Amino acid sequence: MRGSIRILPYEETIEKLALEEKSNGWLGWCEDNKFFQYPVIEWIEVVAETIKKTGSKQNLEIASGNGLIGRALNETGIPIILSDVIKDEFTENLDAEKALKKYNPDLVFTCWVPFDSEIDLLILSYPSVSWYLTVIQSAPGYVGNELIWNQPGWDFQEIESANKYSVSRSDFLTNVDHGKHIIHGKTFLFTRITEVD
């Protein structure tokens, strides 16, 4: 069942999840529509506000996919360049390394990069990057690539105000098409530690 992806408020997104579970399943619908994180209005607003608070000047999204989330961020007034190895009309066709070299961003945003791709480590080691805002798959026992949590020179914080509105392809409701929302996409902001003399 192929359907359109529209930016929706959280409650309507949960209704959509439940509706798809009654049909062919939420995960199947997400796979058909090629996305990992649903662009929930409240979630987009918190992510945009998080970026704004950093004061970053050059924002880059790596692994943008179809660019849906990056475009939604642009619509909030947050300028962000979209890049991906998959050619799409809304993204610039660049891998992570080429995108970093071309734009020298101070803030990088990613959403569900493969945990074994080492894109996270490439971003955290790039000298111009002061902030890394990422949405990471979580499940019992792990959250993303285990190597990123102990990177020297970086602090991180979970953006809990975003997480309560996070809806991903791995999420589910406890009673299949109703009940408690189980969230599997968590948002974190990594901040480079600057030494004060």
Molecular structure report:
The chain has seven helices and ten strands. Strands 1, 2, 3, 4, 5, 6, 7 and 10 form an eight-stranded mixed sheet that branches. Strands 8-9 form a two-stranded antiparallel ribbon. It has helices spanning 10-22, 26-32, 41-54, 68-75, 96-103, 119-125, 160-163; strands at 59-61, 81-84, 92-93, 107-111, 131-139, 142-143, 154-158, 172-173, 181-182, 185-192. The protein has 197 residues and is an alpha/beta fold.
**Rg calculated over all Cα atoms:** 17 Å
Shape: globular
Number of DSSP-assigned strands: 10
How far apart are the termini? 59 Å
Structural class based on helices, strands and sheet pairing: alpha/beta
Weakly predicted, low-confidence segments: none
Quick take:
This protein has 197 residues and is α/β, with parallel strands linked by helices. Helices cover 31% and strands 21% of the residues.
Task: For the structure shown, list the relevant keywords.
31% helix, globular, alpha/beta, 197 residues, eight-stranded mixed sheet, two-stranded antiparallel ribbon, 7 helices
